[in-house]
Amino acid sequence: MNIYGQKLEDLQTYFKEIGGKPFNANQVYDWLYKKRVNSFDEMTNIKKEVIQKLKEDFSMDKPKIIAKQSGKDVYKYLFELQDGNKVEAVLMIHNYGISICVSTQVGCNMGCIFCESGRLKKVRNLMAHEIVGQILEVEKDLNLRISHVVIMGIGEPFDNYDNVMDFIKIINSGKGIDIGARHITVSTCGIVPKIRQFTEENLQVNLAISLHAPDDKLRSSIMKINKAYPLEELMDAIREYSSKTNRRITFEYIMLKDINDTKECALKLAKLLKGLNCYVNLIPYNETSYIDLEKSSLETRMKFYDILKKHGIGVTVRKEFGGDVSAACGQLRSNYEEAK
Ligand code: SAH
């Protein structure tokens, strides 16, 4: 077992089982996440026998940083996992805080045509500790503390549901890294049964939906998942989430030139989302060398924005990060693999 994959309650159960004290779990969390020690031996307020047992039962391995690039307010990391697989994380400095975008799978099976991450099919899910480790290693490298976490790196989080939920509980724990639930956002391409399950978790975590198209024909042509869960089913699940949690939903909408950026698309989108407690995040498409798609012009993006606004839909335009370091969405990994 890896120590960074243990929820506080898991450690409490563990200590009960080995005849330790429940507060040992709090002590371990304190050493790991507040004091950030790198070995069990440094946990000096825990009894020697207990330390010995911890050493036998847990590893403290973390993903290893093997490449790093930086641009204005952005740092991009490539990690190597214990088995040699590679994933990415991106740190962004905003005026409201510091966010990290973490990966949840090696590769991705969702097959969205515009996405670099999916060019490598899913090799495996990340374990919770491998997602936690991305945060710890980036914080250590830059000597700072992250305030916001977006689960939008390589992989589909709801295709790795249990590990992602464990990850959220670990980083959300007040005894640990202590990232507030409202500062955590999980993004999905639209796996409906998991959206329903997530609704029942009763968490204050934000939900983002990668929508990218306002009708089934277009959406199915760019996102394979829409064939399994068409818009009507997706919107049903979202409405239920919205009414049960009262939380505002984010819709991500990448602007792809001449594909989903027309006036007609904007009008359809406004109609689709009317009355829902939500906002649309218009994302400039990050062009990649391996995929033949272009981003919409600023003018087209602004027209789209205006139409949504005029129809009463909350809308923001996402700031562009990392284009200068080819840091967009799975590109560091594929550039690295391609260059080898
Ligand atoms: N699988 C999840 C989370 C990872 S992708 C999801 O689909 O939501 C995170 C976001 O980045 C998604 O909205 C995805 O559609 C978007 N994305 C993928 N490739 C992109 C690119 N080249 N430029 C901009 N956004 C991209």
Give an account of the 3D structure.
This protein is α/β, with parallel strands linked by helices. 37% of the residues lie in helices and 19% in strands. It contains 12 helices and 12 strands. Strands 1-2-3-4-7-8-9-10-11-12 form a 10-stranded mixed β-sheet, covered by helices on one side. The two termini are 32 Å apart. The model has no long low-confidence stretch (mean pLDDT 93). The protein binds S-adenosyl-L-homocysteine (SAH). S-adenosyl-L-homocysteine (SAH) binds at residues 110, 112, 114-116, 152, 156, 187-189, 210, 252, 254, 283, 285-286, 288, 328-329.
Please tag this protein with its features.
single chain, 340 residues, alpha/beta, DNA polymerase, domain 1, TIM Barrel, 2 domains, ten-stranded mixed beta sheet, two-stranded antiparallel sheet, 12 helices, 12 strands, globular, binds S-adenosyl-L-homocysteine
Helices, strands, pairings?
Layout: H1 8-17, H2 23-34, H3 48-57, E1 64-71, E2 74-80, E3 86-93, E4 98-101, E5 105-106, E6 124-125, H4 128-142, E7 148-151, H5 161-172, E8 184-188, H6 192-200, E9 206-210, H7 216-222, H8 225-228, H9 231-245, E10 249-255, H10 263-273, E11 278-284, H11 298-310, E12 314-317, H12 331-339
Bound molecules: S-adenosyl-L-homocysteine.
Q: Quick recap of the structure?
A:
By secondary structure, the protein is α/β, with parallel strands linked by helices. The chain has twelve helices and twelve strands. It has a ten-stranded mixed β-sheet, with helices on one face. The protein has a two-stranded antiparallel sheet with strand order 5-6.
